[in-house]
Design goal:
four-stranded antiparallel β-sheet
Length: 135
């Protein structure tokens, strides 16, 4: 008689343990999904910041080159460095003269290249009018 009373209890305990394990697994799956999403957002933010820095550097380089070489019209640079080897980038500088003497139209394009489909390449461009002081 004792045996028949314990058998249903064991079944109930087993079902309760399985339900608890299922709940824990769902919570863990949710935590992993959140972690993966946050990692993608961090990489995207890094790419966005990198393109901003590259745009700033491209503008500075263009101004510096125009001061030293008045006939400078731009260039294309490929950048791979140290810790950022997985984020190679290109900066394209294009300068065109306007009708006004000493005024130039500057266009800088920065692009980060990613091999991963989850974080594709990012490109940003900036266009400005530059007026250099006459010598």
């Amino acid at each position: 008689m004792k045996r028949s009373v314990q058998s249903p209890r064991r079944g109930v305990v087993l079902i309760a343990v399985l339900v608890c394990l299922a709940i824990v697994m769902m919570l863990m799956l949710g935590a992993v999904q959140i972690s993966v999403r946050q990692q993608r957002q961090v990489r995207q933010h890094l790419q966005l910041e990198q393109t901003r820095w590259l745009l700033d550097a491209g503008i500075s380089r263009a101004i510096s080159q125009l001061h030293s070489q008045p006939d400078y019209r731009g260039e294309s640079l490929t950048i791979t460095c140290g810790r950022m080897k997985d984020l190679p980038a290109t900066v394209e500088i294009a300068i065109t003269a306007t009708e006004k003497v000493g005024q130039f139209r500057l266009r800088v394009t920065a692009r980060t290249d990613r091999a991963e489909e989850t974080n594709p390449s990012m490109q940003r461009s900036l266009e400005r009018l530059l007026t250099l002081p006459s010598k």
